[in-house]
Amino acid sequence: MLTSQRRALITARLASDGQLVAKALADELDLSEDTIRRDLRDMAAEGLLQRVHGGALPLQPPLPDFPARQTMAGTAKRDLGKMAAGLIRPGQLVFLDGGTTNAEIARALPRNLAVTIATHSPTIAAELVRHAADVILIGGRLYKHSMVATGATTLAAIEAMRPDIFFMGVTALHPAHGLSTGDFEEAAIKRAIAAQAAETFVCATNEKFGATSPHRIMPVERLAGLIVQQDIDEQTLAPYRDMALQMIAA
Question: What are the residue boundaries of the HTH deoR-type domain, all occurrences included (predicted)?
């Protein structure tokens, strides 16, 4: 098989299956695994796919900036936010990550709810100005793309907290490759908050499932649960149900 034919097949498999295992394709084509790995390496260098251990995943498009994301999947994010807000109980310390879906959680909170909200996102804090909730705004170096604080100052404040529940924002989740996001420092902050929290939940719109972003946060199975759209198909959710995660449909 010619190199061009192999590359076309790899592209087609990634589009249809959402992933590719180098050994399985090598066995199928009766080729050496080194040949397939070389194809994957070359295609990754050209920006055609993302290399992962043992194979490849489709390349994720660049994440839109924060203002652009505010206009995307508005109804779905509002539904997820309302469902997530319903999990919050009076007296809890709740950590809200940055992001447009978590902004919907803040908007959905009852204004008289006696709760403490910690966040490293000034945009999330601003949503809570007219709420009775106590708000702890954590500082640090502002990562403007996601409007969240990062760095040593942020980590130090997080380590002094024990949130009852953390609503984490992610750009992608995959049953094998875990939760991921687009920035190395942001991934580290998310990982640190989850390590301190009693429970971590992710509100995920349908397009985030089965995808990966460049920087891994942690395995999906470390979550307490996922808050998902009503119309997501059961086949997509099956591997996450096998992890015994709580599934909440909004």
Answer: 3-58
SS3 of the chain: the string is CCHHHHHHHHHHHHHHHCCEEHHHHHHHHCCCHHHHHHHHHHHHHCCCCEEECCEEECCCCCCCCHHHHCCCCHHHHHHHHHHHHCCCCCCCEEEECCCHHHHHHHHHCCCCCCCEEEECCHHHHHHCCCCCCEEEECCCEEECCCCEEECHHHHHHHHCCCCCEEEECCCEEECCCEEEECCHHHHHHHHHHHHHCCCEEEEECHHHECCCCCEEEECHHHCCEEEECCCCCHHHHHHHHCCCCEEEEC
Residue 16 structural domain: 3-57
Can you say how many angstroms the Cα of residue 156 is from the centroid of all Cα atoms in its chain? Answer: 23
Average pLDDT over residues 20-42: 91
Give pTM, 2 decimals.
0.74
Q: Are residues 74 and 119 in the same domain?
A: yes
- Domain count for the chain: 2
Nearest C-alpha neighbor of 199 from the set 241, 243, 166:
166
The residues pairing with 225 across neighbouring beta strands, listed in sequence order, are 201, 246
* CATH number of the domain bearing residue 12: 1.10.10.10
Q: What pLDDT is recorded for position 60?
A: 62
For residue 61, name the pLDDT band (cuts at 50, 70, 90): low
Query: What is the C-alpha to C-alpha distance for residues 100 and 120, in angstroms, rounded to an integer?
Result: 14
